[in-house]
Design a protein that fits this description.
Length: 461
């Protein structure tokens, strides 16, 4: 199919001409570092951009190309790159020590601020990543309920540990199971087969499937873990009443409801998705935005559930936990930078971008739609609606998306992280001028997208 899309080939050719330094680095790095990158999710063909530095809304690659960055570290850089207040905070902290491995006062300050934003966070423990947060939260849930099984949503990503590298964005080939009762499939090799029994999978936005699993596995389920908005599937919003329905069902069947707010936390609203949708889970996981660009995660919730840790039944440990450099960055981020007022500003900039996309899609008759929530948005190259992972996978026009992504990058705009399942992230350092440049770039490549869409349609007919 790609062969029909000559603009994709041309865009990749231009990308290669502009980025020889990235190509060379990845080739050399691949000798010592698998795939030449620090995380599997960073690699894409022909090779990923290699970065030299970042500041504000901009990022520069090793060839000196400047980009306006709307990937923003997959949402983690909500406060923009090299935020001056964070630079100051870590410069102040470094001479006071970057690790204590003992209790210190910044911990309480951050726990209190998170509790202010998330009243359900009666108790919280800090981690170094979202993966650690979701790993520990499941251990706590299993211990509290004395059950091993977990329900997760098909397509949701919760990090890179064995319990959750399951049915993450699965391809719909082979034995993927019934749409309402998806098969549990591994998303990585090296995970014990026993996980297939322990992790049960349901589609997003389908309460009946959850109820059926709860009945079939009565008294065996510890928790349902969910991204309240699917932000690893472009943007899929919960249907009205869906999250509330999960809340009710969790109470009815005596299981725990866990919101993985690693991507949504302190971003959709000061109190994240819990505030935005006014639903209180039992436990919540946070990371990304809360650290202001430093590696900080957290998990917590009901004090009686977190007592599994305080009463010594569950281990949560880590040499680097709550290192003061990261904690000071987190505290500065949440108390001095992400004040309640900035949320309207980023939402309005994101809305301006969404509107620009809509107008251009219309003008060039490109089948597509824009999905958005707070500072996040994305263009989907389909006019069919999607309410879960399978529907997105079925409808999205991936070759067209790739043509778009490389076309935008060649115009000096990183429109979002690579991959149709990602989305743009507006930071508090983006400006209206940045948004307008983004729209102008899209307008510039729109004719090639319209032509590519037609060619792909003809090839399929
Ligand atoms: C919803 C969600 N949960 C968990 C994680 C894992 O977080 P980390 O990459 O910090 O380990 C991610 C990462 O993108 C995520 O999007």
């Amino acid at each position: 199919m790609l062969a029909d899309s000559h603009f994709l080939d041309e865009n990749i050719e231009v990308f290669k001409q502009r980025t020889p330094g990235s190509a060379k680095h990845i080739e050399l790095a691949s000798e010592r570092i698998p795939a030449g990158v620090g995380s599997n999710l960073r690699y894409y063909d022909p090779y990923p951009l290699v970065i030299e530095r970042a500041e504000g809304s901009r990022i520069w690659d090793v060839d000196g190309n400047e980009y306006i960055d709307f990937a923003m570290n997959m949402g983690a850089q909500f406060i923009g790159h090299a935020n001056p207040k964070i630079n100051e905070a870590i410069t102040k902290q470094a001479p006071l020590g970057t690790m204590y491995t003992m209790a210190h006062q910044l911990e309480l300050g951050l726990a209190e601020e998170l509790h202010r934003r998330y009243p359900m966070l009666e108790q919280v423990r800090f981690t170094n990543s979202g993966t650690e947060a979701t790993m520990h939260v499941l251990r706590v849930a299993r211990s509290y309920t004395n059950n091993d099984k977990i329900i997760k949503i098909e397509g949701c990503y919760h990090g890179a540990h064995d319990d959750v590298l399951i049915s993450v964005k699965p391809e719909l080939i082979g034995r993927s199971g019934h749409p309402k009762y998806p098969a549990t499939v591994f998303s990585s090799r090296g995970i014990p087969d026993s996980k297939l029994e322990e992790v049960l999978v349901v589609p997003f936005n389908d309460l009946d499937s959850v109820r059926d699993l709860l009945e079939e596995n009565f008294n065996e389920i510890a928790a349902i873990m969910i991204e309240p908005v699917m932000l690893n599937a472009k943007i899929i919003l919960p249907d009205p009443g869906y999250l509330q329905g999960l809340r009710k069902m969790a109470d009815e069947y005596n299981i725990l409801l866990i919101f993985d707010e690693v991507k949504t936390g302190c971003r959709l609203a000061p109190g994240g998705a819990c505030e935005y949708f006014d639903v209180q889970p039992d436990l919540v996981c946070l990371a990304k935005a809360i650290g202001g660009g430093l590696p900080l995660g957290a998990f917590g919730g009901r004090a009686d559930v977190m007592a599994e840790i305080s009463e010594g039944r569950v281990v949560h440990a880590g040499t680097y936990n709550t290192n003061p450099l990261v904690m000071r960055a987190g505290l500065t981020t949440l108390t001095e930078i992400l004040t309640d007022e900035v949320y309207d500003q980023v939402t309005s900039l994101s809305g301006r971008l969404a509107e620009g996309y809509r107008q251009t899609l219309n003008k060039y008759h490109i089948a597509g739609q824009v999905v958005e929530i707070s500072p996040c948005g994305a263009v989907a190259f389909t006019d069919k609606s999607f309410k879960n992972w399978r529907e997105l996978l079925l409808h999205e026009n991936e070759p067209l998306f790739d043509t778009y992504w490389f076309g935008m990058v060649n115009e000096g705009i990183i429109p979002q992280p690579f991959g149709f399942e990602e989305q743009w992230s507006i930071s508090i350092q983006h400006t209206e001028a940045d948004i307008d440049q983004h729209i102008e770039a899209f307008e510039k490549i729109a004719p090639q997208l319209a032509e590519t869409a037609k060619a792909l349609e003809a090839a399929e007919a």
